[in-house]
Design brief:
9 helices, 2 domains
Length: 262
């Protein structure tokens, strides 16, 4: 039995934005390590539940809109009543919009900050009491390389992800003398639907086929020329849940194909 299995068997994990993409991959990886899972998000809910449930563990779902604090409270009420609380919290849900600062729609700014940053504050504040009572917990925030560097036309996303890295550090300091850790993963380009839309825009703008547009997007920032995969992110996250990572606290771990090495 691996260290991860012994750590997560009997634990409950909540992964936000987990009905597709990166979040679903993370949920599957945690279930494979013995955790019960609470899924949250929109889309193919039953397909996600079936995939996560293949490991044999318990799988729940709550449809909370994380841009609304009252619905986050309802999500944690569900977690407490149905699962006894949450010991592993993964803040993954996020949205994106691109525009210059002077043209950025105010409603899009507000929506991105609410989901990409404020939601993580609310989930964290609600998860910590159970973690403290049980003497163990893991909070992992899925930030971005844009939590560490900027890019044009992404004011709200970059601001939110920088804020998420800051929230990670403060939470880590406030739990430093406990067995609760808080860290952030900062991936570079991952081929999610959000990134594919940027690929599509580039293909249309530069009259490129899909493969050429992907390559051009990658090589602007990511020296490896390869996308980070959901499986790589999930494996790193599982490590952060082990006792081997017990003194990894407040880290912003870039997984970016060399983006920040430049």
């Amino acid at each position: 039995m691996s260290a991860a299995v012994s750590t997560l068997r009997g634990k409950t994990a909540l992964v936000t934005g987990s009905t597709s993409g990166i979040g679903l991959g993370i949920a599957v990886a945690l279930a494979e390590q013995g955790a019960s899972l609470i899924l949250n998000g929109f889309g193919e809910v039953e397909a996600a539940r079936e995939l996560v449930g293949r490991s044999g563990g318990r799988v729940g779902f709550h449809s909370a809109d994380l841009s609304k604090p009252a619905e986050i409270v309802a999500l944690f009420d569900y977690a407490t009543s149905e699962f006894g609380g949450v010991e592993v919290l993964v803040n993954n849900a996020g949205i994106q919009h691109t525009a210059s600062v002077e043209e950025f729609p105010v409603d899009r700014w507000d929506a991105i900050l609410a989901l990409n940053l404020s939601a993580a504050f609310h989930t964290t504040r609600l998860a910590l009491p159970t973690m403290r009572a049980r003497g163990w917990g893991r909070i992992i925030n899925i930030a971005s390389v844009h939590g560490l560097v900027g890019s044009v036309h992404k004011a709200a996303y970059v601001a939110a992800k920088h804020g998420l890295v800051g929230l990670t550090k403060v939470t880590a300091l406030e739990t430093a003398r406990t067995a609760i850790t808080c860290n952030a993963l900062c991936p570079g380009w991952v081929l999610t639907p959000l990134v594919q839309r940027q690929v599509d825009d580039r293909a249309a703008r530069d009259r490129l086929d899909d493969e050429s547009a992907r390559r051009a997007l990658l090589l602007e920032k990511q020296p490896s020329g390869d996308f980070v995969t959901a499986e790589q992110l999930a494996a790193t996250l599982v490590f952060l849940c082990t006792e081997a990572a017990g003194q990894v606290r407040g880290a912003a771990w870039n997984i970016d194909g060399g983006w920040l090495a430049q």
